[in-house]
Design goal:
The chain is an alpha/beta fold and 442 residues long. Helices cover 37% and strands 20% of the residues. It folds into two domains: 241 residues, Glycogen Phosphorylase B (Rossmann fold); 167 residues, 3-Layer(aba) Sandwich (Rossmann fold). β16, α13 and β17 form a beta-alpha-beta unit. α10 packs parallel to α11 and α10 crosses α15. It is globular. The two termini are 15 Å apart. Bound molecules: adenosine-5'-diphosphate-glucose (ADQ). Adenosine-5'-diphosphate-glucose (ADQ) binds next to α1 and α12. It comes from Thermus tengchongensis.
């Protein structure tokens, strides 16, 4: 089975967050099942690849051509599509994002010829559910980003008929909603944890699309993300001062020391690693700081993203110079040191489709204190490998932290290291969904 995975980011070529980890790892996990998956990404200037051809497509009524690049990484074939709009530094965050990614998706439809199936990831690739020449499986990684665009430019750019502009198709409160198109038109829809698959069918988590999701529930599947165990392995991680494993955790103490030196903090150290986004519950962390400090905790926050959140974190560091460190950087090495060297990882998300950081931390022997939502609920064993708290309130988080240390953070961390976060089972589930979408039975 030949699958074209279309996504905006994939590790190790382009990474902003967890989507990249998933798109980078899933092709490797599918290979033993006889699925040959190629990953198609926009060709950002910073990605080096070999030019292997050209793709012709129509956009806004004009014939255009884009160079096609190829690169192999870890046995996975990556194709890079050089449509205009990607010769910039950042991956997202430009006013013309919708236009750039629509052009990418239109051209991607041409690349899909010759594959059995397209697996499209998130709103940036959702258009393929309508335009790909082969069946499409669509994965929702985060319902918070839906890709909204005015109908006039949308139908002009894509050449699709206006007859699609109605409530059961693309229309969403007067605009075109690309995520909705993905859900309605894909043969099968998946999301990244069983709990999130349930939650998004409710008004609380459905972000306006819960009704659509309920109508299409028959083709909606929740498949838990895995971890690339080769990439995230404390026994082989080049970013750590010394390797360690469950049988010999001496290297973990060295990672702790290195983390303290690097940040100027001490233990007990609580860490947050991830994008700065309203989704992630950083407001709870900020409000809890005075209490955490009183209780003798140190806090490291590492991440980039929303300027308002960054500002508040800068201020918190200024007010608590000895207790709070805010590292505003995308830094793989420091992130690994935090997963290994912190006493606990905080994941107080408002909602969380799956979440990888809590899995990585457990694999590195650091217990998470996480909110009981979405994939966090599915991957943290409350009271055994970490702590889950319910209430979206600073007190909920504080209570979780205190409970973790009462239970014994170290012991829970060790138990977390035993958990199986491999992709094997989930890859099988994707394989079943692919076969279903293709009508291959079974
Ligand atoms: N400043 C920084 N420095 C270094 N590394 C950093 C970093 N900021 C983030 N990362 C890395 O980015 C990844 C974050 O992945 P998550 O899945 O936890 O969240 P994200 O919200 O990005 O993903 C979305 O998509 C994924 C994939 O489906 C879902 O799991 C998740 O719930 C959904 O919100 C981790 O590998 C983390 O180490």
């Amino acid at each position: 089975m030949k699958v074209l995975m279309v996504a905006p980011e994939a590790y190790p070529l382009v990474k902003v967050g967890g989507l990249a980890d998933v798109v980078g790892a899933l092709p490797k996990a599918l290979r033993p099942l006889g699925v040959e998956a190629t990953v198609l990404l926009p060709w950002h200037l910073f990605v080096k690849a070999q030019r292997v051809g050209e793709v012709a497509y129509a956009f806004a009524g004009q014939e255009e051509r884009a160079p096609l690049g190829e690169r192999w990484e870890g046995g996975v074939r990556f194709l890079l599509l050089g449509v205009p709009g990607f010769e910039r530094d950042r991956v997202y965050g430009y006013p013309d994002d919708v236009e750039r990614y629509l052009r990418f998706a239109v051209a991607a439809g041409r690349v899909a010829l010759g594959f059995d199936l397209v697996h499209a990831h998130d709103w940036t690739a959702a258009l393929l559910a309508l335009t790909a020449p082969v069946p499409v499986v669509y994965t929702i990684h985060n319902l918070a980003h839906q890709g909204l665009v005015d109908p006039a430019p949308f139908f002009h750019w894509t050449g699709l008929p206006w007859s699609l502009f109605h409530m059961e198709a693309l229309e969403f409160y007067g605009q075109v909603n690309l995520m909705k198109g993905g859900i309605v038109f894909a043969r099968a829809v998946t999301t990244v944890s069983p709990s999130y698959a349930e939650e998004i069918q409710t008004p609380e988590f459905g972000m306006g699309l819960d009704g659509v999701l309920r109508r299409h529930a028959g083709k909606l599947f929740g498949i838990l993300n895995g971890l690339d165990l080769e990439v995230f392995d404390p026994a082989k991680d080049p970013h750590l001062p010394a390797p360690y494993s469950r049988g010999d955790v001496r290297g973990k103490a060295l990672a702790q020391k290195a983390l303290w030196e690097r940040t100027g903090l001490k233990g007990p150290l609580l860490a947050y690693v991830g994008r700065l986004d309203g989704q992630k519950g950083l407001d709870l962390i900020l409000k809890a700081i005075p209490h955490l400090r009183e209780l003798g905790f140190y806090l490291l926050v590492q991440g980039v993203g929303d300027e308002g959140i960054a500002q508040a974190l800068r201020q918190a560091e200024e007010e608590n110079p000895r207790f709070v460190r805010f590292v505003e950087a995308y830094d793989e090495a420091l992130a690994r040191l935090a997963y290994a060297g912190a006493d606990a990882l905080l994941v107080p998300s408002r909602f969380e489709p799956c979440g990888l950081v809590q899995m990585i931390a457990q694999r590195y022997g650091t217990p998470p204190v996480a909110r009981a939502v979405g994939g966090l609920k599915d991957t943290v064993e409350d009271g055994s490998t970490g702590v889950l708290f319910q209430s979206y309130h600073p007190e909920g988080l504080l209570y979780g932290v205190l409970r973790l240390f009462r239970l014994g953070a170290e012991g829970l961390g060790l138990r977390g290291m035993e958990k199986d976060f491999s992709w094997a089972k989930s890859a099988e589930a994707y394989h079943r969904v692919y076969r279903l979408a293709l009508g291959w039975g079974g």
